[in-house]
Amino acid sequence: MIVDVRERFEYASGHIEGSQNVPLTKLKAFDFQERVYIICHSGARSKIATQYLYRRGYDVINVKGGLMKWNSVVPSRKV
């Protein structure tokens, strides 16, 4: 599962197909059981979110470089 921690308006402007939007400001409502990949635009917010969720016992992985990196690595899947 991929969780995008950008704000809703950012997510609406383009996102990874199948990802869930849980803005960084709403992480207290986060409740997933499986491993989750956390992404944002550049990787800064996802790093904060990953640290926060990891300390709370979640199995999370930060997608370093965010969507900017995703789009450069997977050009056919641009958001």
How is this structure best summarized?
InterPro entries: GlpE_sulfurtransferase, Rhodanese-like_dom, Rhodanese-like_dom_sf. This protein has 79 residues and is α/β, with parallel strands linked by helices.
What share of residues are in beta strands? Answer: 15-25%
Oligomer: single chain
Number of strands: 4
Q: Briefly note the structural class of the backbone.
A: alpha/beta
CATH topology annotation: Oxidized Rhodanese, domain 1
Query: Helix amount, in percent?
Result: 25-40%
Mean pLDDT: 90
User: Order of SSEs, N→C?
Assistant: EHEEHEH
Characterise the protein shown here.
With 79 residues, the protein is α/β, with parallel strands linked by helices. It has one domain (2-77): Rhodanese-like domain (Oxidized Rhodanese, domain 1, 3-Layer(aba) Sandwich). It has three helices and four strands. A four-stranded parallel beta sheet has the order 2-1-3-4, with helices on one face. Strand 1 (2-4), helix 1 and strand 2 form a beta-alpha-beta unit. The longest helix has 12 residues, at 44-55.
